[in-house]
Amino acid sequence: EVLVLPTPADVARRAAEVVIDGLTVAGPPEPALGLATGSSPLGLYAELAAAVRTGRLDLSRARGFALDEYVGLPVGHPQSYREVLLREVCGPLGLPADRLHVPDGSGRTEAELDAGAAEYERRIAAAGGVDVQILGIGANGHLGFNEPGSALSSRTRVKRLSDRTRHDNARFFAGIDDVPTHCVTQGLGTVLDARRLVLVASGPGKADAVAAALEGPLSASCPASVLQWHADATAVLDESAAAGL
Ligand code: GLP
To answer: Which of 40, 102, 200 is the pocket-test mutation for ligand 1 (most atoms within 8 Å of CB)?
Structure first.
């Protein structure tokens, strides 16, 4: 389903409804919420926080699963996705910090990182899978950190970040040299296993990626095109992000 709304604030409100519906209609006692980072879902998180404050939503028994994490940032680095999610999601949404799961990017060898990625898949499975996965989209069509060329059935694993993504994300660091070169990300196959996908995108910078993802061929060259394959995927867009549709 593709929902096009006038402003980013409308996108946040409507996407929050789709997320809350997905978490509460099925009524799992300990729902698992898949969490994206980046600027796109911030308005949505603010709406969810408001729903928590009014008692409409209760995440105190939920579990959060991050999409991805940088490799090699020191523990507690403010731009590590664990810290970002603790700050922007756990506190405001009342999701207990010990219920937040993030891929482990601290491994020092390939074998350690691979073991951490496999462990992450086991944790998602042990939670019964993700009920609702919140997604943003990269300007190059990436999902999580699944860059163009990612296998459509991939699982959580180490990936090299593209130059485009490192430049896009340099705004969060002192400079491009401080942006990690690698990450651990849920695979596209992992994302597709979630029961519901909710993609949010706003602004003209996302228009090409959104058009390729939703109306282009299902192809590894646009990882977000896997949304077309999912039985319960909703894209909530503002008019400028939908301009290429
Ligand atoms: C990052 C994240 C993605 C996110 C993307 C878009 O690279 N790993 O999960 O969707 O950026 O970010 P933004 O929403 O800030 O445009």
So the answer is: 40
* Full set of structural domains in the chain with CATH: 2-238 (3.40.50.1360)
Report which secondary-structure segment, H or E, holds 49.
helix 42-53
User: Pick from 134, 199, 130, 142: which is nearest to 169 by CA?
Assistant: 142
**Mean pLDDT in residue range 152-170:** 94
Contact by Cβ (8 Å): 60, 96: yes
Does residue 150 line the site of ligand 1, with CB under 6 A?
Answer: no
Question: What does the radius of gyration of the chain's CA atoms come to, in whole angstroms?
Answer: 17
Q: Is 147 in the pocket of ligand 1 (CB under 6 A)?
A: no
Task: Provide mean pLDDT across the span 55-64.
Answer: 95
ipTM, two decimals: 0.94
